[in-house]
């Protein structure tokens, strides 16, 4: 069919009009998609643009940033992320920003291609109102963290490293691991109601598989042909939103050692077989191209989820030493420490919120790793040595003058054992780790493993016991903790003691099976002679109005503890 010339011109005119715009990269529109802007709350912008790229997630190819000037004059450069659309056509991008100041902000968007600025949006302003939210967590001292608003925080919680899996092959844990109740929606609510405020979780090919296009052992996620796994990103969005609504704080392990061994490495996006740049896990650490690929991942994470104050800490690796020692020749300490130096410096540079940064080892120290400048908190995992927690924490904080966290602990690590046969020992050990941590210089109490076991044994509610004393300590001391030694006559008992403000707290535990008696002597500045006694098992607190005082010594005679029982003695020096 032959169309008249005028008809052809009419059809082609809109296309011809758009061609100059489509052939030259530019920002087309900017729209704030959220309502009234509040301090410490997320605001979002949708940005439409046209640009050419090979990979919209590689900043060397293309990147969009939001340049922000805060009310106090600070200039911030916030990474934005690609949502949809193809190279050369209109594409959609997003900015997620959480203001930490109230007042008037100025901002505009900058589009960069091949390291050259190619387009800017017009300057705009946004007015941010004050809110009663607390803000982001920062380091404060060896014992505590601090929110932007000045409130003091200590983490109390556990590992909840993945949601229920499908087709688990564990001999004894199959029923636990496949139990659908172990999902973020149910368990985080349960933890929050039980007094916990902190947890640790993994990103791996069966849980939050943002970087794994192939998933294994899960029906919760789907394989993906995209650069990032859409189902993993969606669940990560949901997790962060859930944490924000519950007031739960998350240590997010970006990499697990199992992702660099066996089937994990076979499906890794860093493996050359899958489009990455590394022939081996050693090259993941050493290759400049792999390092750049990882920086692009960090940029995406900051752009998409960095806005959330509920992400307490980015954790680079779960047990990086287990990767190092799994290959022959083993991966050197030097290259692993250098990798952490480079990545932590980069993450500090691009993360405008300055989230805490950590990484973890299983049990083998990596030379230089504890001294990496931009790692905020050092971390290791302890199994079969819960009684050693106090000594380990004190050793590392003394040597490195940096907060230290026991990211995992447990009575047993061996998956091949039947924990039902070890129930008494496991539960006692679980409780002891929390109390030892509470009286040690650590901003996050030791995080127990085996979350399914302890929930099914109805132990999750025990966090409320520890949190009760934790809150008293923080309220009285405002973040100040001064350890001291309690004088007890029975050497078989375990004790720890701290002063927080005007209050003294003494933990005393009888590890034996039979009743024990002791005399307790405490140095006090002033006291009316009274003290409170908190039963760690029942949560019952009793006031004792009389105690012998002689030359600033508070003395408690014939103090009795049943076997495997513990108490906290609380007194005030006002």
Structure notes:
With 574 residues, this protein is of the alpha+beta class. The chain folds into three domains: 21-129, Immunoglobulins (Immunoglobulin-like), CATH 2.60.40.10; 137-474, Glycosidases (TIM Barrel); 482-572, Golgi alpha-mannosidase II (Immunoglobulin-like, Sandwich), CATH 2.60.40.1180. It has 13 helices and 30 strands. The strands form seven sheets. Strands 2, 4, 5, 8, 9 and 10 form a six-stranded mixed sheet that branches. It has a six-stranded antiparallel sheet with strand order 21-23-24-30-26-27. The protein has a five-stranded parallel sheet with strand order 14-15-16-17-18, with helices on one face. The longest helix is centred in the N-terminal third of the chain and has 19 residues, at 5-23. The N and C termini lie far apart (99 Å). Residues 1-23 have low confidence and may be disordered.
Question: Secondary-structure map with pairings?
Answer:
Elements: H1 5-23, E1 26-32, E2 37-38, E3 43-50, E4 62-69, E5 75-79, E6 81-84, E7 90-97, E8 103-113, E9 116-120, E10 124-129, E11 137-139, E12 145-147, E13 152-153, E14 157-159, H2 174-177, H3 184-193, E15 198-202, H4 230-246, E16 249-256, H5 262-266, H6 281-286, H7 288-305, E17 311-318, H8 320-324, H9 333-350, E18 356-358, E19 378-383, H10 389-400, E20 404-410, H11 423-438, H12 451-456, H13 463-477, E21 482-483, E22 487-488, E23 494-500, E24 503-510, E25 516-523, E26 531-535, E27 541-544, E28 548-550, E29 553-561, E30 565-572
Parallel strand pairs: 2-10, 14-15, 15-16, 16-17, 17-18, 19-20
Antiparallel strand pairs: 1-3, 3-7, 4-5, 4-8, 6-7, 8-9, 8-10, 11-12, 12-13, 21-23, 22-25, 23-24, 24-30, 25-29, 26-27, 26-30, 28-29
Helix pairs in contact: 3-4, 7-9
């Amino acid at each position: 069919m032959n169309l008249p010339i005028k008809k052809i011109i009419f059809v082609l005119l809109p296309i011809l009009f758009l061609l100059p715009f489509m052939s030259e990269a530019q920002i087309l529109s900017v729209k704030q998609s959220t309502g009234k802007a509040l301090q410490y709350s997320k605001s979002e912008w949708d940005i439409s643009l046209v640009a050419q790229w090979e990979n919209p997630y590689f900043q060397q190819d293309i990147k969009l940033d939001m340049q922000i000037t805060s009310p106090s004059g600070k200039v911030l450069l916030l990474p934005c992320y690609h949502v949809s659309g193809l190279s050369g056509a209109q594409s959609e991008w997003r900015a997620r920003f959480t203001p930490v100041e109230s007042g008037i902000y100025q901002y505009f968007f900058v589009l960069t291609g091949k390291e050259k600025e190619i387009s800017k949006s017009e300057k705009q302003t946004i007015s941010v109102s004050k809110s009663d939210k607390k803000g982001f967590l920062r380091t404060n001292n060896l014992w505590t963290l601090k929110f932007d608003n000045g409130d003091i925080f200590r983490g109390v919680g556990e590992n909840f490293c993945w949601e229920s899996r499908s087709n688990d092959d564990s001999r004894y844990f199959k029923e636990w691991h496949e139990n659908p109740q172990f999902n973020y929606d149910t368990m985080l609510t349960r933890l929050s109601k039980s007094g916990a405020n902190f947890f640790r979780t993994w990103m791996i090919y069966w849980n939050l598989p943002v970087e794994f296009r192939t998933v294994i052992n899960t029906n919760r996620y789907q394989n993906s042909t995209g650069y990032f796994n859409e189902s993993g990103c969606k669940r990560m969005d949901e997790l962060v939103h859930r944490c924000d609504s519950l007031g739960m704080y998350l240590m997010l392990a970006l990499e697990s050692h199992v992702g660099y061994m066996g089937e994990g490495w076979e499906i890794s996006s860093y493996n050359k077989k899958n489009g990455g740049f590394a022939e081996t896990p050693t090259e993941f650490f050493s290759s400049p191209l792999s390092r750049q690929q990882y920086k692009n991942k960090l940029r995406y994470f900051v752009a998409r989820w960095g806005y959330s104050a509920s992400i307490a800490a980015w954790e680079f690796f779960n047990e990086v030493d287990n990767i190092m020692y799994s290959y022959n020749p083993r991966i050197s300490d030097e290259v692993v420490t250098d990798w952490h130096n480079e990545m932590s410096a980069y993450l500090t540079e691009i993360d405008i919120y300055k989230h805490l940064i950590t990484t973890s080892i299983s049990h083998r120290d990596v030379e230089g790793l504890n001294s990496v400048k931009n790692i905020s908190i050092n971390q290791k995992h302890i199994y079969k040595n819960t009684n050693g927690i106090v000594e380990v924490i004190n050793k590392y904080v003394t040597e490195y003058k940096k907060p230290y966290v026991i990211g995992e602990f447990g009575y047993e690590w061996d998956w091949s054992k039947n924990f039902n046969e070890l129930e008494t020992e496991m539960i006692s050990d679980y409780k002891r780790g929390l109390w030892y941590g509470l009286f040690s210089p650590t901003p996050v109490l030791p995080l127990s493993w085996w979350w399914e076991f302890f929930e099914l044994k109805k132990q999750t509610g025990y966090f409320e016991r520890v949190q009760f004393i934790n809150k008293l300590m923080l309220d009285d001391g405002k973040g100040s903790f001064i350890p001291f030694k309690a004088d007890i006559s029975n050497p078989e008992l375990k004790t720890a003691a701290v002063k927080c403000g005007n209050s003294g707290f003494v933990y005393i535990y009888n590890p034996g099976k039979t009743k024990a008696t002791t005399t307790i002597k405490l140095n006090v500045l002033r006291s009316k002679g009274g003290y409170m006694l908190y039963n760690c098992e029942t949560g019952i607190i009793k006031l004792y109005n009389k105690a012998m005082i002689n030359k600033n010594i508070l003395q408690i005679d014939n103090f009795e503890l049943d076997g495997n029982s513990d108490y906290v003695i609380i007194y005030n020096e006002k």
